[in-house]
Amino acid sequence: MLGVFALSSCGGGGSGTNNNAAELPTCRDPQVLLDNGVCGDPRPPFELPACPEGTIRSGADCIVPDFPVPERLAGPNEAVIFVNVDGSPDEKKAAFARYNLHLWQACGNGWGDSVKDGNDATYTIPTTWPNGPGVASKNEGEPGVRHDPYYGAYFVIPISATGTCGNFIVKVPNTTNQTNDLSLTINRTTADYARMAWVIVNTENMRNSRVSNVPICINDRCTLERPMLAISDVEAHWISPHTIIWNRSFAAGKTVELYRSTAGGMTDNEAGAVVGGDLFATLGAGREMTGEEQALVPHLANYIAYDLPAEISIDSIKSALKDELLIVGRYDSVEENEQGQTVTVERGRGTRLQLPHVLDALYADNAADEKLGVSYGSGVTAKVWAPTAQNVDLRVFSGDPLRVSATLPMTFDANTGVWSVTGSVAELDRKFYRFRVTAFHPLQKAVRRLEVTDPYSVSLSTNGRHSQFVNLDDADTKPAGWDGHFIPEVTAPENMAIYEAHIRDFSINDASTSPSYRGKYLAFTENSLPVQHLRSLADAGLTHVHFLPTNDGATVKEDFGSQVNLDSYILELCQRVSNRSSVSVCDGSVPNNSTVRQVLESYDPQTPAARELIAAIADLDGFNWGYDPHHFNAPEGGYSTDPQGFTRVKEMRAMNMAVHEMGLRVVMDVVYPHTLSSGISAADSVFDKVVPGYYYRTNPATAVVEDGTRAGPDTATEHRMMGKFVADSVVQWAQHYKVDGFRFDQSGYMPKSVLVNAYEATKAVDPDTYFYAEAWTPMWGTSGDRIAERAVQEALAGTGIGTFNDRIRNPLQQMALINGGNVDAIRAGLAGNLKDFKLKTKSGAVINASTVGAYNLDPQEAINYVEKHDNETLWDWMHRPGAVPADMSIANRTRVSSLTLSIPLLSQGVPFVQMGTELLRSKSMSPNSYNAGDWFNKVDFTKQTNNWGVGLPPELRDGITDDYVKGVFANPQTKPEPSHIEQASAVFTEFLRIASGSPLFSLQTAEQVIDRVGFHDGGKTQVSGLIVMSIDDGVGTVAGTESTARADLDSAVDAIVVVINATATTQSPTVKTAAGFTLHHIQQNSADAVVKTASFAAEGDDGVFTVPAYTTAVFVKTQAGAQGAGLSATATLGSSVAVPYGDTAVYVRGNVSPGGWDPVATNRLVYEGDGIYSVLLAVPASAVNNPIIFKVAEANWSMPNLGSTAIMEIGDTITLTQGSNDNIRINVPTAGTYRFVLDASESTTAPTLTVENPDVYRDVAVYLRGTVTSWDTTTSANQFVHEGNSVYAISIPLAVGDDFMFKIASADWSTVNLGSATPVVLGENVALTQGSNDNLMLDITVAGNYRFEVDARNPDAPIVKVYREDLFAATPIYLRGTVSSAGWGDANSINQMTYAGKGLYTKTLTMAAGNYEFKVAEANWSNPNLGGSAVVLGEPGEVTQGSNDNIGLSITTAGDYRFTLDTRNPNAITIRVDALN
């Protein structure tokens, strides 16, 4: 296991990026979170075998230690990190004195509590940026005290007693110079160099520093003498035929030369000459890169370009690219000689070259149409693209066991870079083969001859060790009836409904499936219970089955006889584990003839016994999700009945055909951003052995492969032949396996263009194909620096490619509907996650859905879901701490599950459901079951169990402990009976039928959604946990048009209303103009007796929908004959009404205020939502019989330009007239501040205007009375203060306590006596009632200062809000990211936010035009660590604690910008950015 690696994330062979808040360490695959809360390797099979004697481990390789032994080794309770840098002795000492460490504990709590440096300064761990320990070594001293003469300075860090990993950064404090996030495995053995790391600083960019877990020197040769020619790294990049770029510059007149060596092994001699190579070219003087060159390699835009002489031919260049290449530049070094004299010495620097871009330039166009891999024609042809190979042979294998039967030389095409050979069908067909490639490998600095399988393999031997010649058109590779078999059609992507299935999970535990087919492709061809269930879902409206990766994976051993599964005997397990003493069942306490399943069934689920036994078989069984690609174009052999040869091809086709015949289409999960292995050592590494360094994203200075995906080495899909590979691969699956759609794993690591091109190529062979992607913005790696536009969510909007919608997912997983959280993102998701859809928030503001993160341009781009294979199942999410009330009944828990699942099904867009979720499927709280085996991943299609509580899960996170899980398992209300599972299944099927039964749930354009979908639950009267959505199909004019008639999409209904009541009580929302609705006929006959009681009743011109607790009810307005009246999306004030005057600024203009007649900021009306504008103005007193005059108008006196002949008094309301030439007149007896309120909700040409005194309680003192202060006292200590604009407030200290009671009242308990029966939730408005007998109830869980704020702008219906003042008083918070010079790392006065009162924190920054990313966080990225979606200037954007998403911000004009963090509602903290210029 590599000892030093980039900071990595939890969970391992899994796909996807975890967007959830996590307080505990994240673990690098294969580490998992252990019981003691640290990362570790609990499973012996993960441990690499010991190296042969005389060698040591370096990553995956065993190497001969031909380097000097370091003077300082790590003691048993410490770690040692060396840091070295090129330069003279004095330059090195100066650099060492500047470096310090940042230490933290994210990957495994490996460090001790504190560390002392060489200056005897002590630092607590985690350290506080930018402070940290300096080096422990000294400039002078004995060996082990001084800087190591070979390896430089070193840090010494104490380690903890049980930790497994520690995080570190080497940096120069108070600068931007730092390495990447690094970590060190705390190996507690006595192995050579355990707990040690070596860092060679790259002075051009410390993030490109070399890092190793074995000793490394600055240059290729370890010497104490400063070499005349220093050769190191792979820093130069050959980017076009005649241009090389390098991050080194050399003075005019100094040579820069390019050397080559066919044999490899170039080095330097003492005189500084290159030995073992020949001069290929003397390069031109360094120059700046052109704009075109910078666009090609944006991450290298600051490099220096060196040009080859034009007379060097392309053929010569292509020949040189097959050799070892070394670029050498000369420079003058001013030094002091042994006599103390200052002399000038010419020295040299050399480095090797990275070649991907020149290979693309020379070969990609010509190779674009090449059919790589195996093709059949007059013979059998094998082709492989290997332009840097010196030679390629085809090795043919036959027999049993396989042996080499022929070696055929392959021919190189210098035009395409392709090697090929053709043989007869008789000599090659059905035989196995490998390529033998001879090429130079820059990391090994040597020419190697390696055997490798075909990257384009279509069939394989067992475990993928050999490729096989197979013609996919041969009849015996196809099941009977394959050609021309029926494939169901889907008229539009919005009509899709997707079911995510794992092939093994589908049948491995099912007794009704033939034993030999369990867990296999062929299980789908039988009439088993799982198949019957799948057919029933298809009959109800399911359209697609999404299979987790079915291409050849590297992890599962396909030779079934070597596996240990649930039905294997304990004897078999104990024979195969590497350490029997570590497995409790191997101690003789369990009979050898017991099966693993029998032993697991005997365990108490309240113990870790099941966890431990599953850990023992985890890497011996046949289970894995499959996100570990080995061969992308061949089916996984573990799912076939015979992994040797083309049986896998025929049986995967049989599965796809069976699924088609059920009426379902097939989606394939594809994983192109990474493989499991790279390099030359791993048996399952393919690409790197064919074209070294081309197919992977490598460090620009070291050429070490990146692991940004945290699931394996990152492929460089931005390189053109890797992009071609992706398109070729998906086209093959569509063409030869009739795959109907593709889900792209971690597409954010790929260019958008690669997905779009692959989409177009696939549509050429299957016009009905559909692509969707896991398009999270990558957190790690440098893909964002290299790719102009990545395939992330926002970028894919408008392409028609779907993306997983985490905006709806997160609040659904967090049970926001149940526990009263913000659900605006759920509403946006119900409306297709369209960025331009209008939503009314709880504050009453009308916002674009983009403000809450929506980004789609077409509903087909929204993949709406609650959960998928990674992370917990819905049932397990429901049982995380605080998700649902602990005393909730099992019946209501079942209802909550069904309600939550109903939301993606009834949303606009594409619903996506994990297999078994409709059966209340549980993984017993496992958050990452990729390697948890068949026990924890079981799906029971008999509906007898949901797999809840079958043992403590293999890993835990987010602070969840074993004790918590034991408690929730012990709660009898958490374990469903078969009747609950049956009901959940039936209700899910009903929702499928309802959604598929009307095209109104599958609107196909953004325009249709915006016109037809409305919400009738928004605004200040919003009820937490209640959503009321309508879909209009009635007569009318399409929104945004003047005369386009609304089409009649569903001849059966004129409108649909969906009421989602996630509260604990029956709700009866009133919807204006709703008439003629009845409960959907499917729900009238529902398996759920409760929903049958839902009803509709007319109430005057409106309608009341009554829906029981924890219920989603669907109501329809039946169409009788021709299209009739529906229900407008904007029928109620709770709807998403448009801003009356759009973006036009509206002003109160006249001598009514100091602003006068000019349109200035001080007299601009502010839009408050609901069609209401207001402004507070300082109005002078009017003279007797001489009223003040004014108008309401925009800057150019156009629309609006509102006037009236009326003479107003303070408190009056009048109607204004658009275009009036009359000034409005008002008598103001007393100068003061007055509120002007313009109500344009009903009309923009005849709005009303009210002028009022905002101090509504000016004639009476109002007090906070109750147990929060005193019921009886009415003094200044509890008196509300008018702060302006009818807002009255008081702040008081409160201790922790339940059931505080209070009212807002005058001294006489009569003039003002405001109360409410609604419990107060911190940060949320509560409507008050004058004369109420109800006290307001308040619970305080954290002691602090609390602000009570009464908004009496509507004096007949005032509201109160209570929130904690200065939420982060104990923790300074900072704007961290690219928005300021402090960057991501520093937390200082440059980016510190200041508390401004009233729950608001602010910071003003001067910013240039550009795109920015930031978060709001405390110094150690703990709590707070607030992230979210992009924000729009002037609009609040919600942020989430622990979010992995950076907040995006686009600035078009340079200037000063104020950032305001609003913490008044702790459950809905927002950030707003305003331009101040």
UniProtKB/TrEMBL annotation:
GO terms for biological process: carbohydrate metabolic process. Coiled coil: none annotated. It comes from the Bacteria. It holds the Pfam family CBM_48. InterPro entries: Carb-bd-like_fold (IPR013784), GH (IPR017853), GH13_cat_dom (IPR006047), Glyco_hydro_13_N (IPR004193), Glyco_hydro_b (IPR013780), Ig-like_fold (IPR013783), Ig_E-set (IPR014756), Pullul_strch_C (IPR024561). Residues 598-943 form the Glycosyl hydrolase family 13 catalytic domain. The keyword RNA-binding does not apply. Keywords: Glycosidase, Hydrolase. One of its GO terms (molecular function) is hydrolase activity, hydrolyzing O-glycosyl compounds. Belongs to the glycosyl hydrolase 13 family. This is Pullulanase. The lineage of its organism: Bacteria, Pseudomonadati, Pseudomonadota, Gammaproteobacteria, Cellvibrionales.
